[in-house]
Automatic annotation (TrEMBL):
Residues 633-707 form the ACT domain. One of its GO terms (biological process) is guanosine tetraphosphate metabolic process. This is GTP pyrophosphokinase. Belongs to the RelA/SpoT family. Its EC number is 2.7.6.5. SMART domains: HDc, RelA_SpoT. Keywords: Kinase, Transferase. Signal peptide: none annotated. GO terms for molecular function: GTP diphosphokinase activity; kinase activity. It comes from Streptomyces nymphaeiformis. Residues 93-190 form the HD domain.
Length: 712
């Protein structure tokens, strides 16, 4: 059996996760029902097996007219094929597909999804074949089961996990129900992770954090995302999770505080004649943790939000008007995700109001339909291959085929670039980086021959837009016009910008390694890296045949130190320190020619040096001049305490160093990371400065910054 399929059934993790909706069904009860069904023989044709009565009840709550016969047949096949298989807790294995199916049923999944969910491990872990599933349940169910079936580890070895995710994502491109089943499967496995070895718990939790939770966010399945976040939080950050649990336990009156505001809101809306349901929604663990980091000390109303549900879109704005009239609004908290829905289908009005007693409460305003989509995301859309009403399932294309609202944007972009990443490691790394992006922008193409829009992650540059629009033809891109003005390819684009990419007419030119500094999307980075590997001669000058005269040129003005480079006889060229490792005297250094003839200088042990050599780049001999000034980036690791920032700044000032920039990251496990970029009047004092910073109480390490990317 596969590793995940045999995850043990155990008590949940130590943290009790607060969830809304129906209580979790006791798996022991499901196990007993499964055993009773097995010993009692097949149920009558007109009666469902008792073990799936909870699934049937939840399914009928969303789909009253659903035909449950197929679910009964699927359960019978799943139970008989898994019979004799047990989880490590001793529970019959059938309790796992039953629990996964119940999760999806409660979210409102349609019958085909539930059928495939009951069968999702049969092909992987039993003698049942995909052809058998297809014969008995049809092509759609077979496609979904195949989509969530892992690739054989014996064939792929260490690459089995990334290749399994690649397979699932490609299948999701045609039917998002594949990923719905996978998310529910992972949620149940995370709920039952307790007795596994700590290192395996951590490994599974990290993949869940880096891949599954971002996918749940992008598919809009908030109900699954929030519980997955809490379960991962408990495993990877147990101390902070325990602190959050204690914080919630120490504030038992939080619901009462929100309840009082809810009563006031209800009275206001009733008086205005607006039919609405006002609910108190407690924050989940991770949400409370984030609120504490953002606001510091939390008050009663900070432990939850008010949810106002209405019938029509217009009612949402009517509620907003009443709230802003009768209460004091916190304008900075207002967001309109109805007029401008998020890329994951989410729609709501967000605001915050101050009650007469000074309590500030966040309020979410949405219709009942919006609420269903906000909680269940793509699960609420039903079958993507059957046309449905546009307000719940997208629109119809001119050829009658349904336009899936989740397919444009991030999913199409992911499916495109994964084809260019045949190496599993490249795919796995790029996938995690792509999913780490929290938001999406839309830019408008100004090319007369190809009008339209491009969806990109927030922070994307003209380089990303070029590869998103032109593919490998973007290798010849020379520049861009952004909002009608000429702009370098490094320009970061904003939502709603208009961009026109300028391509060379010849195919001789190609990307510079420096483009990697501006590429945010995996598609652009993979294409650029591939071109540079295929054309090493374009990134470095030919080997010299004549003695090399020494050319001395001043370094980039930001460095303050003079650099010398031994160049082939061309002309003096700019020599600058690399931003990734900020070399200063007396660091051992090496240089590389970059596009345009300039030389970038790295510390000899910078990881970018290995990357450059891997691309076939020949190093240039460089050395320091006599000017002992320079710029350096230092990272101070410390335990958080009051006054720490002031003490570190004072230690830096004592050495006459100028702070060019500083960044203090949010505390993690009571540890704080400070990053300073400094201009030193005399770099020979760098070691003494680092010692002085280490002597500051609470600081346990000070080091030079490491490069964040492989190539500079």
């Amino acid at each position: 059996m596969s590793a995940e399929a045999t995850n043990p059934e155990a008590a949940p993790t130590d943290v009790t996760v607060r969830r809304r909706g129906r209580a979790r069904i006791d798996l022991r009860r499901l196990g007993r029902a499964a055993l009773l069904n097995a010993t009692a023989g097949p149920a009558p044709r007109d009666r469902l097996p008792d073990a799936i009565s909870h699934v049937a009840e939840a399914h009928r709550a969303h789909h009253p007219e659903a035909d449950l016969t197929v679910l009964g047949r699927a359960y019978v096949l799943a139970e008989s094929s898994h019979r004799g298989q047990f989880r490590k807790s001793g529970e019959p294995y059938i309790t796992h597909p039953l629990a996964v199916t119940l999760i999806l049923a409660e979210l409102g999944a349609e019958t085909t999804t539930l059928t495939a969910s009951l069968l999702h491990d049969t092909v992987e872990d039993t003698e049942v074949t995909l052809d058998q599933v297809r014969r008995e349940f049809g092509d759609e169910v077979a496609y979904l089961v195949d989509g969530v079936t892992k690739v054989e580890k014996i064939d792929y070895g260490a690459a089995a996990e990334p290749e399994t995710f690649r397979k699932m994502l490609v299948a999701t491109g045609s039917d998002v129900r594949v990923m719905s089943i996978k998310l529910a499967d992972r949620l149940h496995n995370m709920r039952t992770l307790g007795v596994m070895r700590p290192e395996k718990q951590a490994r599974i939790a990290k993949v869940t954090r880096d891949v599954l939770i971002p996918l749940a966010e992008r598919l809009g399945v908030q109900a699954l995302k929030t519980e997955l976040e809490d379960l991962v939080f408990a495993i990877l950050h147990p101390e902070e999770c325990e602190t959050t649990r204690a914080l919630i336990a120490d504030n038992p009156g939080a619901d009462d505080a929100l309840g009082a505001v809810a009563e006031q809101v209800t009275a206001v809306l009733r008086e205005a004649g607006i039919g609405a349901e006002v609910l108190v929604r407690p924050r989940h663990f991770v949400s409370v943790h984030r609120a504490r980091l953002k606001r510091g000390e939390l008050r009663g109303c900070d432990f939850g939000r008010l949810l106002v549900l209405v019938a029509e879109d217009a009612d949402c704005y009517a509620v907003l008007g009443e709230l802003h009239t009768c209460f004091t609004p916190v304008i900075s908290e207002f967001k309109d995700f109805i007029a401008a829905p998020k890329f994951n289908l989410y729609q709501s009005l967000h605001t915050a109001i101050a009650a007469p007693d000074g309590a500030v409460a966040e309020v979410l305003i949405r219709t009942h339909r919006m609420h269903k989509v906000a909680e269940a995301g793509v699960v609420a859309l039903g079958n993507p291959h059957v046309g449905q009403e546009s307000d719940t399932a997208g629109s119809q294309a001119d050829d009658g085929e349904r336009v899936d609202p989740t397919r444009p944007g991030w999913l199409s972009r992911l499916l495109d670039w994964q084809q260019s990443a045949p190496d599993p490691d490249t795919f796995w790394t790029s996938l995690r980086a792509d999913l780490a992006e929290d938001d999406e922008i839309t830019v408008f193409r100004a090319d007369g021959s190809a009008p339209g829009t491009i969806s990109l992650p927030a922070g994307a540059s003209c380089v990303d837009a070029a590869y998103a629009q032109h593919g490998e033809a973007a290798h010849t891109c020379l520049g861009a016009r952004v909002n009608g003005r000429l702009a370098p390819l490094s320009t970061v684009l904003g939502d709603g910008d208009t961009v026109q990419l300028l391509l060379a007419q010849d195919a001789v030119s190609g990307p510079s390694p420096e483009w990697l500094d501006h590429a945010r999307t995996p598609a652009a980075r993979i294409a650029i890296t591939g071109w540079l590997r295929a054309h090493p001669e374009s990134a470095a000058p030919p080997a010299p045949t004549d003695p090399r005269p020494q050319v001395s040129v001043p370094a980039d003005r930001r460095s303050g130190a003079e650099l010398h480079a031994d160049l082939d006889g061309e002309q003096p060229a700019a020599v600058r320190p690399a931003g990734c490792c900020t070399p200063v005297p007396p660091d051992e250094i090496t240089g590389f020619r970059v596009r345009g003839g300039s030389v970038t200088v790295h510390r000899a042990r910078c990881s970018a040096v290995d990357a450059m050599r891997g691309l076939g780049r020949e190093p240039v001999t460089v050395r320091w001049g006599d000017t002992p000034q320079g710029r350096v980036t230092l990272v101070a690791e410390s335990f958080g305490r009051p006054g720490l920032l002031a003490d570190l700044t004072e230690a830096i000032a004592t050495f006459g160093a100028a702070v060019v920039s500083a960044n203090v990251e949010p505390p993690s496990e009571q540890r704080v990371r400070h990053t300073y970029t400094l201009h030193l009047p005399d770099v020979t004092g760098l070691a003494a400065l680092m010692r002085a910073m280490r002597d500051v109480p609470g600081v346990y390490d000070v080091s030079r910054a490491h490069p964040s990317r492989g190539v500079s």
